[in-house]
Amino acid sequence: MKACYPGTFDPITKGHLDIIERAASIFDEVDVLLMVNPRKKCVFNAEERKQMIEASLEGIGCDNVHVVIGSGLTVDFARKLGAKAIVRGIRAVTDYEYELQQATANLMLAPEIETMFLIAKPEYSFLSSSVVKEIALNDGDISSMVPAKTAELVKEKLKGNSDALK
Ligand code: ADP
């Protein structure tokens, strides 16, 4: 059975990567679905985000994971990919409210696709792409938060560049 894991991944973090690994051990195939939303301002363009995810995957050796760039409704894209499940991660109660709303809307639009939640590992439960960007901007150490190649690119793009986060 195929699942997709949609998200913005601006940039991918070790928390995302952990969800991908765990999903890949449950499902036959996992498509990481990098959703492009023109109303959401990102620091990295879609191709850069895709490359960072792919570089991170090399380190974990999950042959059944692929990265796909998509736009529009997640359920429409999930259908196109033949995914029977949408995987999402939950870090805290604050995530739950938003995720519940999205999952319920998706259930109404596509009742044949189940949303499945994996809870964040405790060591990643504070971790978000925004936290990583804020720390990198202020020249802090992000090496424990994002995969190695991602860390390099994030530092390169953000160090001292507060305009990038506006
Ligand atoms: P979106 O804009 O769709 O929320 P994100 O890239 O921020 O995209 O997150 C994608 C998914 O990964 C969401 O379900 C989010 O809750 C989950 N996620 C984000 N950070 C973590 C983490 N540290 N641990 C586990 N899941 C996470």
CATH topology: Rossmann fold
Radius of gyration over C-alpha positions, nearest whole angstrom: 15 Å
- Counting helices, strands and paired strands, the structural category is alpha/beta
> What composes the largest sheet?
5 strands, parallel
CATH architecture: 3-Layer(aba) Sandwich
CATH class (first level) name:
Alpha Beta
Number of helices: 6
Bound molecules: adenosine-5'-diphosphate
How many separate domains?
1
Give the overall average pLDDT.
95
Please give the alpha-carbon distance between the first and last residues: 40 Å
In terms of DSSP E residues, the strand content is 15-25%
Low-pLDDT stretches are: none
Q: What is the oligomer described by this structure?
A: single chain
Please give the order of strands in the largest beta sheet. Answer: 3-2-1-4-5
Superfamily at the CATH H level?
HUPs
